[in-house]
């Protein structure tokens, strides 16, 4: 099964400009559930090229995960924000700035997940929604303003090489013009929320 080809977005959608996809890319996120530091992930392109490392911090209340590029640069931390009515995760830059907020709320059917951030290019607030169910085999990440599909999460792409030791693996097709780090952060937040259920 070959991944879908998503149309390019007219204006880049990013929290970090250096990871904007130039063509349709497929990310493969593989969770290392039994790692000694807590849940960690390896993130590669479909061709096997590593792109990010996500290192979980063991025994932290916020379940902090640090995201690094392959040169070892610390890009941001993903943390669960407590004392919120709805489950909320945030991405914080190393200098403490909030880059992204991912919030879940109950809807009439299932749950709704919304990610918001300020575009570093335009200064506008961007709102993304997850359409579909994370527990299903497929979900879309959609720009609320334009209705464009920015990424498609598809577990069936990797079903033939399913995992050992309860690890999770996700294939995520990302549209040209969309930040691979942003989509990676969203997938990790969705996974964390799903693991709580």
UniProtKB/TrEMBL annotation:
SUPFAM superfamilies: Tubby C-terminal domain-like (SSF54518). InterPro entries: LOR (IPR007612), LOR_sf (IPR038595), Tubby-like_C (IPR025659). Belongs to the LOR family. This is Tubby C-terminal-like domain-containing protein. It comes from Aspergillus bertholletiae.
